[in-house]
């Protein structure tokens, strides 16, 4: 039986310098009016901001220099990401590529894929989508139905992916497909492929609009899509192990704590003007939870830096972090008597409206709460 291990992590001395570098960059951006802080910055698409981040060396920071990276530690990168999210910087264009897809290619991709793709990610000019979820499968990735069959010099993909964030703007998508018939081991016979969405041959993207009318999600159809052999990720049939490792990056970072952070900052400012005991207790509770969650997230970053695979701890961070992110707009509604309005000129009112409308999706993306708690229970030997 495994157990949770959130060992304390001490940031390296270099992290202080990188934090200041990020703060100076962001201060310059804000002074020049290059972006307006967003309430969910890692989901906000701004191609020009991503290019400027690339020029400043803030993408693929811990990747080898031969691919454009700076070869810094994952903990150095952690503090930069914290600063970006806390500032509400629009990181959505390069987010998935920097957070997980590029790491997957670096570790498991062919050398041709690394040379072709990684430098473009580092430059902030190449965006990725995640091709895991499918219709009628929910978060049960082992039930993947997309098929990949051998072709001349590569593979032919057929199937559908859903809830695919930014697929309509991404250059590539890493798709999980079944390359062998489903057997007793549901996790066997799954393989990952890098699909070039720019070629457009056999790929059709259909938008799924959010509750507030935004277009982030998509349904993506693959009809005899060809993928060359050097765009296979890892070994044939090794997709499940890579997916679970990839999800540790997706579920544990500071983005799982800070989706409604801009609303929290605004709430604190509003409450401070007329604080009472009730509001002080509520804000103190939120801040203490945020501090604890940050330490948990940082601990997972330390595990990843040391080469471990903390799927159990990452699932816990995502589950508890999601609950925290969803609690902020609810607490704001209780503390401040304001009608949420999505088209309001007042930042707080608009941020509250967006928080209320988007918060239900937080416990879906990256794995539903039921799936995460199942992983945790199994890891703890409770089932």
Written account of the structure:
With 383 residues, this protein is an alpha+beta fold. The chain has 3 domains: 13-126, Butyryl-Coa Dehydrogenase, subunit A, domain 1 (Orthogonal Bundle); 130-237, Butyryl-CoA Dehydrogenase, subunit A, domain 2; 253-379, Butyryl-CoA Dehydrogenase, subunit A, domain 3. It contains 11 helices and 8 strands. It has helices at residues 13-31, 47-56, 74-86, 95-108, 111-122, 239-252, 261-272, 277-305, 311-335, 347-362, 369-379; strands spanning 128-131, 147-151, 154-161, 172-178, 190-196, 203-209, 215-228, 232-233. A hairpin with a 5-residue loop joins strand 6 (203-209) and strand 7.
**Strand arrangement, major sheet:** 1-4-5-8
CATH class bucket of the largest domain: Mainly Alpha
Oligomer class: single chain
Look at the structure and name the CATH superfamily of the largest domain.
Answer: Butyryl-CoA Dehydrogenase, subunit A, domain 3
If helices are DSSP runs of H or I spanning 4 or more residues, what is the number of helices? 11
Characterize the overall form. Answer: globular
What's the helix-strand series? HHHHHEEEEEEEEHHHHHH
CATH topology of the largest domain: Butyryl-CoA Dehydrogenase, subunit A, domain 3
Q: Could you tell me the strand content as a percent range?
A: 5-15%
Largest sheet: 4 strands, mixed
| End-to-end C-alpha gap | 11 Å
CATH architecture of the largest domain: Up-down Bundle
Please compute the radius of gyration using only Cα atoms: 21 Å
Mean pLDDT: 90
Percent helix among the residues? 40-55%
């Amino acid at each position: 039986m495994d157990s949770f291990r959130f060992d304390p992590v001490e940031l390296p001395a270099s992290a202080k310098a990188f934090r200041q570098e990020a703060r100076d960059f962001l201060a310059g951006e804000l002074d020049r009016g290059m972006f307006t802080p967003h309430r969910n910055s890692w989901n906000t698409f701004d191609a020009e901001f991503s290019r400027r981040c690339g020029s400043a060396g803030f993408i693929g920071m811990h990747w080898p220099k031969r691919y454009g990276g700076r070869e810094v530690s994952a903990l150095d990168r952690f503090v930069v990401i914290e600063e970006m999210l806390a500032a509400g910087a629009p990181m959505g264009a390069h987010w998935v590529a920097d957070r997980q897809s590029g790491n997957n290619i670096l570790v498991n991709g062919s050398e041709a894929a690394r040379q072709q793709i990684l430098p473009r990610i580092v430059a902030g000019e190449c965006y990725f989508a995640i091709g895991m979820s499918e219709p009628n499968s929910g978060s049960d990735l082992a039930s993947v139905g997309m098929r990949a069959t051998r072709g001349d010099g590569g593979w032919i993909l057929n199937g559908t992916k859903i809830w695919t964030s930014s697929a309509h703007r991404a250059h590539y998508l890493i798709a999980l497909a079944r390359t062998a018939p489903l057997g007793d081991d549901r996790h066997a016979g799954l393989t990952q492929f890098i699909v070039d969405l720019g070629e457009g041959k056999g790929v059709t993207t259909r938008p799924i609009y959010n509750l507030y009318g935004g277009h982030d999600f998509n349904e993506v159809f693959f009809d005899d899509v060809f993928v060359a052999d050097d765009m296979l990720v890892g070994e044939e049939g090794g997709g499940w192990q890579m997916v679970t490792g990839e999800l540790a990056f997706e579920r544990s970072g500071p983005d799982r704590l800070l989706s409604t952070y801009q609303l929290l900052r605004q709430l604190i400012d509003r409450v401070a003007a007329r604080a009472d005991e009730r509001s002080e207790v509520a804000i103190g509770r939120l801040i203490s939870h945020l501090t604890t969650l940050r330490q948990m997230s940082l601990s997972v970053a330390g595990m990843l830096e040391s080469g471990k695979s903390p799927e159990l701890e990452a699932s816990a961070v995502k589950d508890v972090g999601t609950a925290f992110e969803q609690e902020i707009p609810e607490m704001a509604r209780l503390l401040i008597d304001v009608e949420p309005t999505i088209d309001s000129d007042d930042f707080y009112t608009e941020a509250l409206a967006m928080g209320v409308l988007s918060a239900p999706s937080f416990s879906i993306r990256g794995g539903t709460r039921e799936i995460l708690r199942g992983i945790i229970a199994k890891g703890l030997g409770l089932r």
